[in-house]
Amino acid sequence: MRLSESSLTRLAAQVERPGYDRAQQRVGIVHFGIGAFHRAHQAWYTDRAMEAGDRDWAITGVSLRSPTVAEQLNPQDGLYTVSERSAGADKIRLVGAVRDVLIAPRQREQVIAAIAAPGTRIVSFTVTEKGYCRQANGDLDPDLADADSFYAYLVPALRRRLDAGLPGLTLLSCDNLAENGRQLERLVRQYVDRNDPALLPWIEAECTFPSTMVDRIVPATTAADLAALADRIGLEDAGAVMTEPFSQWVIEDRFAGPRPRWEAVGAELVGDVAPYETAKLRMLNGAHSLLAYCGLARGHEFVHQAIADPELHALTEQLMLAEAAPTIAAAEGQDLALYARNLIARFANPALNHRLIQIAMDGSQKLPQRWLETLAVHQIQERQCPAILAGLGAWIKHLRGANGPVDDPRAAELITAVASADPGEALFGKRGLLALQWHPTGAERAIILA
Tens of pLDDT along 366-421? Predict the structure, then answer.
């Protein structure tokens, strides 16, 4: 039997349940990109905030392309479980924060109406780096943005709110982008400037774009995971997510109106997210990408296998402590050495089965902030980063098909670049696909192209 409101009497007693009346909670958040990460992170925090006494923060999820999540959650009345996995027993919680899931291309009017509804106060995003439709220089790509991006739903809804005399919204990016709130604000303004420039003054006056840092490892759920879970909880849960016990959410305290009391359930509200965000991007995410490409090259499948490899363990420590950490201006009380030790312990969790090939996706969107910015800082000081250079070499081999088909929004361009006479120039030169402030020296090119 499938998990739903009507089948909860059959749910195993060991499953922790929401301590509030779901029927009494109205929607207050519309979320774009309701994948596994959102369900294990922001929705999980929101569920617990409502259990702590907050009201009217239920979530309407929006899938921009695939109907998969809607097919998983809508027959279950939005219910799903989060399993926190460790070497000991799993902790399983039923999450009730999600009300329903809309499929944007099929339900355009419903998506716009949900954002424009008087009760909605926050629109949040986990659309991955490529979902922001950026060109190589970071500006909005108009062609991509006009083709079923979140902008095409958000901006008409903001216009509808203005025309109805409703207040503005908090627009909350929860993606792995440096200064994600500032980037979202700049890109939204660029889209509005092209499509409805008269809306700009209202957005500037009424809407805010806080930056955030999100952290929780959420591997893709497998069929075996779902089968094992059904045996444990007594019901089939097509929307289940598996994650680690650790979670972190740091949010810039800059909201346009009411918000859930996320800080009551573990989130951190701060004046400046940058030190936490930079540490996460360059240390955690940078190390993840290193383990992905180098681990695949050495025949590993999962993160815990790769970090147990002595050579990769040493490379990971080199990247985090000797290469990334010196480029980060830590906040008061932020211990980067301790952070690195804790990350390695998290990577070693044998219960997660976090696939390296999953992390290896979309390298063109991830590596500039994970690796290239660190390289740029060291280049100014005439220092090299052997771990990151090794990672770049493994990435180039990945682009050449060493691990199967390349899953990247710029795959065709990247494959052409690495097949050229000078792939280092085609990728990292001043006119290269990933042109940034870092351009490899001859010695660095020799290392990454070896």
Answer: 999 999 999 999 999 999 999 999 999 999 999 999 999 999 999 999 999 999 99
As a whole number of angstroms, the longest Cα–Cα distance in the chain is: 67
Assign residue 77 a region (left: φ > 0; alpha: ψ between -120 and 50; beta: otherwise). Answer: left
Contact 290, 398 (CB under 8 A): no
Burial tier of 348 (Cβ tally within 10 Å: 0-12, 13-18, 19+): middle
60-96: buried (b, 16+ CB within 10 Å) or exposed (e) per residue? bbbbbeeeebbebbbebbbbbbbbbbeeeebebbbbb
List beta partners, residue 328.
none
Give the integer Cα–Cα distance in Å for 237 and 239: 5
Burial class (CB in 10 A: 0-12, 13-18, 19+), 13: exposed
- Coil vs helix vs strand at 313: helix
Determine contact, residues 378/385, Cβ cutoff 8 Å: yes
Strand partners, 82: 93, 241
Beta strands 212-215 and 248-252 are antiparallel
What local confidence, expressed as pLDDT, does residue 435 receive?
84
Distances (CA, A) of 23 to 5, 99, 283: 11, 10, 42
In sequence order, the β-bridge partners of residue 63 are: 103
Rounded Cα distance, 396 and 401, in Å: 9
| Tokens representing residue 25 in the block | 């909670």
- What pTM value is reported for the model? 0.86
Distance CA 56, CA 291 (A): 41
Of the two residues 317 and 176, the one the predictor is more confident about is: 317
Rounded to an integer, the average pLDDT of 28-32 is 98
Residue 267 Cα distances to 137, 284, 338, angstroms: 32, 19, 20
Calculate the CA dihedral of residues 249, 250, 254, 255 and round it to 10 degrees. 10
User: CB of 298 within 8 A of CB of 403?
Assistant: no
d(CA 236, CA 8): 11
Separation between Cα atoms, residue 161 and residue 167, nearest integer Å: 7
Sign of the C-alpha dihedral computed for residues 121, 126, 127 and 128 taken in this order: positive
- Is-contact 28 49, C-beta < 8 A? no
One-letter identity of residue 208 = T
Buried b (16+ CB within 10 A) or exposed e, 227-256: eebbeebbbebbbbbbbbeebebbbbeebb
- pLDDT (average), residues 13-40: 97
